[in-house]
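Record type: ASSEMBLY
Status: queued
Input:
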Amino acid sequence: MSDSIWQAIHAEPASGNPFSSNCPSRVVLDHVTSKWGVLVLAALAESPRRWGELHRYIEGISEKMLAQTLRALEGDGFVLRESAGTVPPRVDYSLTPLGRELADLLVPLVRWVGDNVGRTAGAEALGRTA
Amino acid sequence: MSDSIWQAIHAEPASGNPFSSNCPSRVVLDHVTSKWGVLVLAALAESPRRWGELHRYIEGISEKMLAQTLRALEGDGFVLRESAGTVPPRVDYSLTPLGRELADLLVPLVRWVGDNVGRTAGAEALGRTA
DNA sequence: CAGTATCCGCCATGATACTG
DNA sequence: CAGTATCATGGCGGATACTG
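Status: finished
Output:
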């Protein structure tokens, strides 16, 4: 990875340099790389899904965090929420074109981690980082 | 992204399926996608750096979090720590080959977010996700 | 079904002080 | 310079109850 890339970003505050503490990209990056954000995006990258499907598919996520994560990603413009307006309700979530771009970068990363967990020193040794 | 990929993982508990709540990949994924982990990895992807350099380069990170993040990533086998053993101390951090693989996936993601912050719906609207 | 509202614990995070 | 130790806190995240 050439240094010039980052240095260009560093020199140009108008674009988003995540290394700057006041950069808005930090916020988006936090959404994207949040504990659940990455899994929600990866799940939706496979196919559009309904609320309940997501809830079941992403094991361990609470209703609160699913709602919160979805709203954050929707707010970022990565996720599209479509309510059927029927009763009982039916709501479908999918990736926006922007979200698709992001997911195309994110999914390989998630896959790599999943595939290479065994090669990491730990996961045992990692019980806690503190 | 083909569904079959994920489904294969789903069907094979031996590999790491991040959608499973008990999967070790969740832990590593949390390290990698942690607030500071992603920035540390991206910073080291540019070039090896000393402690102080990292501290200054990654704006806003506290000493504690830098140390903690570095130790977590070192424990995962992504980061190599080399102490010169001199006094005053000099410690260099760099990516391991495994870390390099990971960074090659991670850096494009970070760059994309940085480059596309302006296209996201918000960063203004995102003040808080709660 | 698809959420929202509320309460709450705990840990991640941060600030400060100290050290080899 | 390169950390560690300690303390304080806030907000992330979970559980539960409730609703249209």
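Annotation: Residues 84 and 90 of chain B are 5 Å apart (CA to CA).
Annotation: The two ends of chain B are 31 Å apart (CA to CA).
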